[in-house]
Amino acid sequence: MTPATATSVLDWQKIDSRSSSFFGLREVAFIRDTLLRATSAYSALVTPKWREPVERQCLDLVRLPENWDLHGGRPIDRDTVVFAVDMLTRVLRPSTPPPYLVPASYGGLQAEWHEKGIDLEIEVVAPNRVCVSYEDSQTGVSKREVNLVNDFSFLYEPVKQLTERPVS
Amino acid sequence: MNQRPDDLPDFENPPVIETVLGVQFAPLEKLQATHLGQIWELFKSEFPFSVDQPPLEPAFETFGGVRGSKRMRLELVGAPLLPRVWFVNSNKENEGNKLIQFQQDRFVHNWRKVPDRGDYPRYEPIKEKFIGDLHKLEEFIRVKGIGLIEVNQWEVSYINHIIPSEEDEDLLSDLGSVFSFWMEEEPVTGLGKYDTARFSMRFLIRSGDEPIGRLHITAEPGQLHDGREIVVLTMMARGQPHTPVIDDIEKFFDLGRREIVKGFADITTQKMHDRWGRKK
Among A150, B68, B240, B251, which has the minimal tally of Cβ within 10 Å of its Cβ? Predict the structure, then answer.
């Protein structure tokens, strides 16, 4: 595994010929892990059912222009989107229902679920600044504005309930 | 300048060939292309050459949840993003031994060992230089009204080339001679001896009970220009500082370096330690 931010260069003369563009639309392309394109069609890896909806919604989010809500709404910060995707990949299970991704006017975003008697809202204000609200009408659990930084263990139980509870 | 801690393992000739110190920060939204040339001017006397590169994606160490999950990689294509720029101290192959990398949300220094470019500097002067240059950048950013540098990740990396010392030594199929945890018993299957192997490991870095970062270790086959097959051992410590203030970063660099150096001594064998001249 090469760390995702590999900045070390063993041969500094191998210059990437790809040129950067200062213009053009702000697009997002998700590159699926190469392992999913492996020759084995029966790999133990499972493509999560939430992946495509999250990809599609992220694409819509990063396309939002300045003043997207007509009240001065800022475009969603790229780093915030990356951090949110990373968090979701870490905490969601393959069969977890996909979240709704909602933009915030200050440039953050919120991942939310309202189903199976569960209201779960994960607000990603910025990288390392997450605020969670969780209510479960079946168990009576109610947690409001729980601040998380980079440890998302708190989300284990809500995600477990979201994933495993049958649709009523 | 801080002195090297006395309790850290030390080697006369460690196999390290490259050291990286870097910080990731909230993107400087007001940064423009014209600023890049001005930033180069800050360092040009020492780094007279510049190369554009595609920007690196942000990366964050996070915890809790599934450890084996595959990351979705997010790449911005055709976006109005500024490039990553390299400021290099030489444009001749195998001469440049220092590199600054800068992009809208990253500032990184790389040092590598190159023959005939003097002694490879130790960590303490490398860190001092990095912090000084980061303050220089911060001052420029502030004066120009571009924004503030609010660090959200720090990174320390050591890259090692473990080279066979004898002509017939084959490290790639004898990792047990390099790594102390690699059990090198006789083959227990009909597959015989492995041809090559590679591995990656991650360890949590904690502050008290709280995970604040990770130590990533990878070992894989490599080849030198002269064709010799080697083991490339990369050790990267990365995490989040307690505050985004630059002056807070130094102790996290020290923490990362400590984890790397102690980890390096722990995972390598006495045979290798003797070869590299372990002093303590």
Answer: B68
Q: Please give the Cα distance from B169 to B175 (Å, whole number).
A: 11
Collapsing DSSP to helix, strand or coil, B145 comes out as coil
Nearest to A4 among B55, B57, B76 (CB): B57
Nearest by CB: B58 against A23, A33, A79: A79
Tell me the mean pLDDT per 10 residues along chain A, length 168: 40 31 27 36 64 90 90 89 92 93 95 96 96 95 94 93 89
Q: In what order do the strands lie in the sheet with A118-126?
A: A100-103, A109-115, A118-126, A129-136, A142-148
Whether the predicted model's global pTM rises above the 0.90 cut: no
Residue spans of alpha helices (H) in B110-161: 123-143
Q: Where are the alpha helices (DSSP H) in B71-208?
A: 123-143
How deeply is B57 buried, as exposed, middle or buried, from its count of CB atoms within 10 A (0-12, 13-18, 19+)?
middle
Q: Is A9 on the interface with B (CB under 8 A)?
A: yes
Distance CA A129, CA A122 (A): 10
